[in-house]
Design goal:
Elements lengths: L5 E7 L4 E10 L1 E8 L6 E8 L4 E8 L2 E2 L6 H17 L5 E4 L3 H4 L5 E11 L12 E7 L7 E2 L10 E10 L6 E8 L7 E9 L9 E6 L17 E10 L2 H11 L14 E11 L9 E7 L2 E4 L10 E10 L7 E9 L9 E10 L1 H6 L1 E7 L7 E9 L1
Antiparallel strand pairs: 1-2, 2-5, 3-4, 4-7, 5-6, 8-11, 8-15, 9-10, 9-12, 12-13, 14-15, 16-19, 16-23, 17-18, 17-20, 20-21, 22-23
């Protein structure tokens, strides 16, 4: 990053003394490190000064301009310059932390597969003596989106048999948290109970079926936990990566394949990879697939039944005569039902239109897009421009 002069302006107004218009001028050295594989791609910003800064300020005491006293201005100016230089003159630096570097630098070590099997003897929450339960799953204290099962209407003993996967970076400390909610069409969804599973309790590559007692809180001394709230049955298996799989993953992360032979000289190959979606919610059913529309052509992913967080990882290619700098890709997530005679056999779960100019300039874009006409739905699309 190129050096440039910068100006720091501060106004302070204590009760008796006034430091006015403190300005520090200097040439900074800015370092972004350590570099990591997730946005914004660095964990901290380090700012140093390349020379002793120039300082300008005003100082008043009880309304009297002290800087008018002969020799005082230069003395105080040199004192401040020395203090600032001692703190920030290179190799000293001011660190601005963007994210926890220890967490950011952790490599994925494996995959946790979770099957939410069923719940039994849940509490009645509705006036008619029923509840509409669903389950939220997430890795506790991790800044990643939670996953959700479908809603089971009017059922105190629901069966889901829905599968979810999480990328694991530290199985010794990470904890899976599960919360059961009662879905409500109006207002906040009421929590019915929760429990957690420390991943350190799992044996690698060994499936484990657990029956979790639903609690009010995670405080073991909370008397509210004595009230029955039902049970949640789940199946877990932690699958560590083999060493060669982790090395392959690192080696391939920076690669960009070239377009195949026969691609027009002025054009290239547009590659679209539909990875996954999260928090999809259909009004009548949630059996999602993705429909791509580009230059009048339509491509579709496979349909995944009864899943709000589907994963496809399907690739589509378009060979183009010229870069698509002025084109857009239309992405729509649909849910379809195979039930005969169903009035609403097809419904849209959300859509988004993606401008392709960024992928032409950056060669690769991998982002999660918020779906329009969806409450919380997002879809992850990776775009590549190969020439």
């Amino acid at each position: 990053m190129s050096s440039r002069a910068y100006n720091m302006y501060i106004c302070l107004f204590p009760s008796h003394e006034q430091v006015l218009d403190l300005q520090v001028f200097g040439i900074p050295r800015i370092t972004l490190k350590p570099l990591v594989g997730i946005f914004p791609c660095f964990a901290s910003i380090f700012v140093s000064l390349m020379n002793k800064p120039h300082v300008d300020f005003g100082l008043k005491l009880l309304g009297v301009d002290l800087m008018a006293i002969p020799g005082l201005y230069r003395f105080v100016q040199e004192l401040i310059k020395d203090q600032v230089a001692n703190m920030y003159l290179w190799p000293q630096a001011l660190e601005v932390q963007i994210m926890d570097p220890e967490q950011a630098l952790k490599r994925p070590l494996g995959i946790l597969d979770v099957t939410v099997v069923k719940a039994v003897k849940l509490q009645r929450k509705d006036l008619l003596g029923k509840s509409d339960p669903y389950v939220k799953l997430n890795l506790r204290e991790e800044k990643v989106a939670f996953k959700k099962t479908t809603v089971k209407r009017s059922n105190l003993n629901p069966e889901w048999n829905e599968e979810f996967s999480f990328v694991i970076k530290d199985p010794a400390t990470q904890v899976l948290e599960l919360r059961v909610y009662d879905w409500d069409q109006v207002g906040t969804h009421e929590e019915m109970g929760l429990n957690v599973v420390p991943l350190k309790d799992l044996t690698p590559d060994e499936p484990k079926i657990l029956t979790l007692v639903l609690l009010k809180t995670l405080n073991p001394n909370d008397p509210q936990n004595d009230k029955p709230r039902g049970q949640l049955v789940i199946e877990l298996v932690y699958k560590p990566f083999k060493e060669d799989e982790m090395l392959d993953d690192i080696d391939d992360s920076g690669k960009m394949e070239k377009a195949p032979e026969g691609t027009p000289a002025g054009g290239g190959l547009l590659v679209i990879i539909v990875h996954e979606a999260q928090d999809l919610e259909g009004k009548y059913h949630t059996n999602p697939h993705v429909r791509l529309l580009f230059k009048g052509e339509e491509r579709k992913t496979k349909r995944i039944k009864k899943n709000r967080d589907p994963r496809w990882d399907e690739e589509f290619q378009f060979r183009l005569e010229e870069p698509p700098t002025n084109d857009r890709l239309h992405v729509e997530v649909y849910s379809t039902s195979s039930r005969i005679g169903l009035l609403h056999s097809k419904e849209s779960l959300g859509h988004v239109s993606i401008n392709l100019v960024d992928v032409v300039h950056n060669r690769r874009v991998n982002e999660k897009y918020q779906l329009i006409d969806s409450r919380n739905g997002r879809v992850q699309i990776e775009l590549q421009w190969r020439t």
